[in-house]
Amino acid sequence: MGFDEMDVDLIWQDGEFVDWEDAQVHVLTHGLHYGTGVFEGVRCYDTENGPAIFRWEEHLERFYQSGKPYDIEIPFDRKELTEATEELIRRQDLESCYIRPVAFYGYDMLGLNPEECPVEVAIAVWPWGAYLGEEALEEGVDVAVSSWRKYASSQIPTNSKTTGAYVNSVLGSLEAKGNGYTEAIFLNKEGNVAEGPGENIFLVRDGEIYTPGLAESILEGITRDSVITVAEDLGYTVHDGATISRSELYTADELFFTGTAAEVTPIRSVDDNEIGAGTKGPVTDEIQERFFDVINRRTDDYEDWFRYV
């Protein structure tokens, strides 16, 4: 679905609600040329108690923290951004949506040092279904290990959601889709498994769960953290910070992606190697079912993860 097909007509930009088509920046915006911006991706779910934003405070905290390496000081406090987001959802009468805050260096000059450029901030919300397709949640996805490597934290901060750094993700995604796969998996510079273009990855072996940690150049995903909590509460042993080789992907009992957009998506093959039975495995199924019970508020557990609009 394109933006022009969606029933949304407002964006919050630098303190004002503006019409969707009027939310514009100058062609010489620093962030456009050099990728000097940070962003977040957040889900708001339709529940019996109204729209509920999933782990908003954690996403907001990461938004501010992401700007620090770039000296991006967001000129609005947490309360202002929270009120703006909630008002956007209310004004457009959305029961569920995806939320995209972004902050970037704006128009002033085009030297590499952006210190004279203003920091501009915008928030958009829109309906967005399953990122990798509704059928992917049940049937799983076919993925390929990318020829592109995930950049190291010594090159670009890996725990900041930096706009420019996502060209790495774009390259991996384009390559995978061009070769007939749904998504990619990145290895890090050491050749170990890192993550997907927009997802963290989990491996299941002998009933235990393994996932790469920060040392493997991953983003510390908030859905990742939530799934670890859910899995441990279900009684699973989770090895957070595991080193996973490429070959271990092929011999895994189960694999699955997690992310704000992907939620919990099974992986059925890697490089045309069938994973397990080539279907959603039992561990993935139990975690996915529990996760969806949580986010759709079919349980009172983890109530502190939600902010109701």
Automatic annotation (TrEMBL):
<comment type="similarity">
    <text>Belongs to the class-IV pyridoxal-phosphate-dependent aminotransferase family.</text>
</comment>
<dbReference type="Pfam" id="PF01063">
    <property type="entry name" value="Aminotran_4"/>
</dbReference>
<dbReference type="GO" id="GO:0009082">
    <property type="term" value="P:branched-chain amino acid biosynthetic process"/>
</dbReference>
<keyword id="KW-0663">Pyridoxal phosphate</keyword>
<keyword id="KW-0808">Transferase</keyword>
<comment type="pathway">
    <text>Amino-acid biosynthesis; L-valine biosynthesis; L-valine from pyruvate: step 4/4.</text>
</comment>
<comment type="function">
    <text>Acts on leucine, isoleucine and valine.</text>
</comment>
<protein>
    <recommendedName>
        <fullName>Branched-chain-amino-acid aminotransferase</fullName>
        <ecNumber>2.6.1.42</ecNumber>
    </recommendedName>
</protein>
<keyword id="KW-0032">Aminotransferase</keyword>
<dbReference type="InterPro" id="IPR005785">
    <property type="entry name" value="B_amino_transI"/>
</dbReference>
<dbReference type="GO" id="GO:0004084">
    <property type="term" value="F:branched-chain-amino-acid transaminase activity"/>
</dbReference>
<comment type="pathway">
    <text>Amino-acid biosynthesis; L-isoleucine biosynthesis; L-isoleucine from 2-oxobutanoate: step 4/4.</text>
</comment>
<dbReference type="InterPro" id="IPR033939">
    <property type="entry name" value="BCAT_family"/>
</dbReference>
<dbReference type="InterPro" id="IPR050571">
    <property type="entry name" value="Class-IV_PLP-Dep_Aminotrnsfr"/>
</dbReference>
<dbReference type="InterPro" id="IPR043131">
    <property type="entry name" value="BCAT-like_N"/>
</dbReference>
<dbReference type="GO" id="GO:0008652">
    <property type="term" value="P:amino acid biosynthetic process"/>
</dbReference>
<dbReference type="InterPro" id="IPR036038">
    <property type="entry name" value="Aminotransferase-like"/>
</dbReference>
<keyword id="KW-0028">Amino-acid biosynthesis</keyword>
<dbReference type="InterPro" id="IPR001544">
    <property type="entry name" value="Aminotrans_IV"/>
</dbReference>
<dbReference type="InterPro" id="IPR043132">
    <property type="entry name" value="BCAT-like_C"/>
</dbReference>
<keyword id="KW-0100">Branched-chain amino acid biosynthesis</keyword>
